[in-house]
Amino acid sequence: MASLDRVKVLVLGDSGVGKSSLVHLLCQNQVLGNPSWTVGCSVDVRVHDYKEGTPEEKTYYIELWDVGGSVGSASSVKSTRAVFYNSVNGIILVHDLTNKKSSQNLYRWSMEALNRDLVLTGVLVTNGDYDREQFADNQMPLLIIGTKLDQIHETKRHEVLTRTAFLAEDFNAEEINLDCTNPRYLAAGSSNAVKISRFFDKVIEKRYFLREGNQIPGFPDRKRFGGTLKSLHYD
Amino acid sequence: MSFLIDSSIVITSQILFFGFGWLFFMRQLFKDYEVRQYAVQVIFSVTFAFSCTMFELIIFEILGVLNSSSRYFHWKMNLCVILLILIFMVPFYIGYFVVSNIRLLHKQRLPFSCLLWLTFMYFFWKLGDPFPILSPKHGILSIEQLISRVGVIGVTLMALLSGFGAVNCPYTYMSYFLRNVTDTDILALERRLLQTMDMIISKKKRMAMARRTMFQRGEVPNKPSGFWGILKSVTASAPGSEMPDLTLIQQEVDALEELSRQLFLETTDLYATKERIEYSKTFKGKYFNFLGYFFSIYCVWKIFMATINIVFDRVGKTDPVTRGIEITVNYLGIQFDVKFWSQHISFILVGIIIVTSIRGLLITLTKFFYAISSSKSSNVIVLLLAQIMGMYFVSSVLLIRMSMPLEYRTIITEVLGELQFNFYHRWFDVIFLVSALSSILFLYLAHKQAPEKHMTP
């Protein structure tokens, strides 16, 4: 049982956006009853079937490392957090749909995590600030998840979802918007579940099946606006 | 006519202070959050503005700017507004936001927040009973009653912060207290942390696999509920089932997670100490180290003076400015224009006290806010901070009276009424002493405990 292969995925985001609830929902298919602050890092494991339904199906362990804290923490906290960023295979960025600052902070979170392993191919124009060159050539699979969807009023939904679509495009990543207290959003067969499954498949492929420099086949290259509109509908 | 000019000067400065409070709120306090309730920001800035106006009026008093009667009028008005904010508005809003956070009471927000406010008023009133703060000839609903209670709370806060600050300041500045941390220590701790995380992961893998197998077999892993459920679960775990006991593994995981949290905090501590060691080798670090020695002497002297004041039941009659001038004139024989110099020196002294106390309070509040706030509670915490800030500033005015020469004290005495000022100074000394001594004890224990943690392998 313990001899299955494993991949490591970081779950990053501001304090209070719902990372612990999300991880609990992904790994145990249950809603987290009493969320409390995460000190340091909490890990959970999800058993995932790679290429489910095909002859090449294989089971993997996916470790979800939920790193607590805020992006403006003291440098001693950042140095300690950096110990968790070693040999990461994928990153899930979580933001709160009701709090714009948490979405903006995602840039800084990804810089903090990626600066450990990334080989810069573009020229850094700014000094440590977000630079699009880096993300264009980024090889690390990213997934953007927006939480607390139920707290957005119907009338504001379109505006919020357009904003998050641009955010996901900046990161060259897929995006999902949900409510962590409702398992319906990740029910088997829903479009969200399919996206998560595809993300984990991409992470596993990158780790075990591809050599350096290959393009990942079969993934929609760049989302056009039609593609983003599709993600606004929910099953 | 002159009244209009004076009023316009005061109001312009109030608007300036309001703007400063607004900027401080946006740039410093709330830089990681989104402001959704503008009422909170407005209340904070208004409290800040009116508190600063009080200090401004003291300075005007010393310098003799503006007409005396218009100064008096503005004092009274300022005081009324501040009391209104501190006793009516801020507590009511705190209650309102606390109730809004609780989902159950969401519908009946207003009546519950009124209830909370009434509870606050009851305790606030009861606060005045054990203290001899008033001469008995005042009515129930007068300004003196309210100010006296606000003063007690504020003076307690001031003394607590003062005591802790006086002890903590040399402790942080001086590098004598820095523990020796090497890179190998940090690496060893990090390795332990990662090992613990690996152990947690392997246990969670077993649990996840067990859950998946049970799910595939159609069994439902439910917790035993009720008496019969427990009986059933006992009999159901018959020999032959190779399912690992999930609850036992969960307990082990909980213990390991607690350990990982401890290790994380210790590692953060070590990194912080290492940074401080590197900082102390720089020029700025050496300068602060020297200041630290100076402040530790000052702190010891203050504790000594507080003890003397309490033991000998002595409340200083003269302020430091007049005493300083007396000493120089009588003992050192230097002659100079007493009136002129006393005015300027007291202006500088009072100005320094005001600026450092404002700056110190804002920095402390910011640190406190970063440490304990989250996106849900940020509004409540900011309002609490505004309340603390208002009470702090009001009692600074009370205590600053002692540092001013007699001729400038009159306006404060006139405006604030017949308070027993001596009581406040005595109370400040007592709380200061208690706070300083307990901080010394606390820091000593924390310092002693830390090296032992790293000695054990």
UniProtKB/TrEMBL annotation, chain A:
Instruction: Give a Pfam family name.
Output: Roc
A GO molecular function held by the record = GTP binding
Record keywords: GTP-binding included?
yes
What keywords would UniProt list here? GTP-binding, Nucleotide-binding
Check the record and name the Gene3D superfamilies matching this protein.
P-loop containing nucleotide triphosphate hydrolases
The family database entries (InterPro entries) matched by this protein are listed as: P-loop_NTPase
Q: Does the keyword Nucleotide-binding apply?
A: yes
Q: Which family does it belong to?
A: Belongs to the small GTPase superfamily. Rab family.
What biological function has been recorded for the protein in this entry?
Required for KRAS signaling regulation and modulation of cell proliferation. Regulator of KRAS prenylation, and probably prenylation of other small GTPases. Required for lymphocyte development and function. Not required for myeloid cell development.
Share what the entry says about its subunit structure, partners included. Answer: Homodimer. Interacts with GPR89; the interaction stabilizes GPR89. Interacts with RAP1GDS1.
Report the protein name in the record. Rab-like protein 3
What organism does the record attribute this protein to?
A: Fukomys damarensis (Damaraland mole rat)
